[in-house]
Automatic annotation (TrEMBL):
Documented EC number(s): 5.3.1.24
One Pfam family here: PRAI
Keyword Zinc-finger annotated: no
Keyword line: Amino-acid biosynthesis, Aromatic amino acid biosynthesis, Isomerase, Tryptophan biosynthesis
Domain N-(5'phosphoribosyl) anthranilate isomerase (PRAI): 5-210
Protein name according to UniProt: N-(5'-phosphoribosyl)anthranilate isomerase
Length: 216
């Protein structure tokens, strides 16, 4: 089975087009105002309109309230939600019901126990899981995700996943092959690793990441 990719944190037409042209199967728009990758929902709608139906448009939220979700869901520009905060299993289930869209719960992991606990807690309520690195506590600039930091991929070894899952955290065109080999991931997610500066996506890096993924 081929390895497919999600390019997250897109903010410009040029980089959305690069992701689609390079073969991305998912594109992500960040609905989290403190992020340098944040887009307003009307900007996301305009970018989402450039995306063909075989590419899923993912809205990334961090502990969203119902008003924010309602605003983003109204236009029908999203195909999937990514919850990247501290949402409880109950909240994930509630959002899924309200949105009537598949929900992917992002889980920040540092140890094998984090992975197992997350699978227990979210395996039944989320449609997909995403494993990302826990933010470094000594970095004042750290966001809840999108920090370009990998975790020890060996902690995923041999875990039985109840749902489709994505590998994320610090992936780059240079390390994605090693990450896939270590984890067996079939879906990989990248943000920082395809940027020329924090929050600034590079069409060239996007193309390089997708080319590296296509070779796997
Ligand atoms: O990208 C952000 O700014 C962001 C803010 C708050 C929560 C999550 C965020 N991003 C998550 C992602 O972009 C990815 O899904 C993933 O975690 C990969 O990030 P990276 O390590 O930068 O490749």
């Amino acid at each position: 089975m081929a390895v497919v990719a999600k390019i997250c944190g897109l903010r410009t037409e040029e980089t959305v087009r690069a992701a689609v042209a390079g073969g991305a199967r998912y594109v992500g728009f960040v609905a989290y105002p403190p992020s340098p990758r944040h887009v307003a929902f009307h900007e996301a709608e305009a970018l989402a309109a450039l995306v063909p139906p075989h590419v899923l448009r993912v809205g990334l939220f961090v502990d969203p309230d119902d008003d924010l979700l309602g605003e983003w869901l109204e236009g029908g520009a999203l195909d999937m939600l990514q919850l990247h905060g501290t949402e409880s299993a109950k909240r994930v289930a509630r959002i899924r019901e309200m949105a009537e869209l598949p929900v992917m719960k992002a889980i920040r992991v540092a140890t094998r126990a984090d992975v197992e606990q997350a699978v227990d807690v979210y395996g039944a309520v989320a449609d997909r899981l995403m494993f990302d690195a826990a933010p470094l506590t000594d970095n004042p600039q750290a966001l809840p995700g999108g920090n370009g930091v990998p975790f020890d991929w060996r902690i995923l070894e041999g875990v039985t996943m109840p749902k489709p899952w994505m590998l994320s955290g610090g992936l780059t065109p240079e390390n994605v092959a090693a990450a896939v080999q270590a984890t067996g991931a079939r879906i990989v997610d990248v943000s920082s690793g395809v940027e020329s500066a924090r929050g600034v996506k590079s069409a060239e890096r996007i193309a390089a990441f997708l080319a590296a993924t296509a070779r796997l």
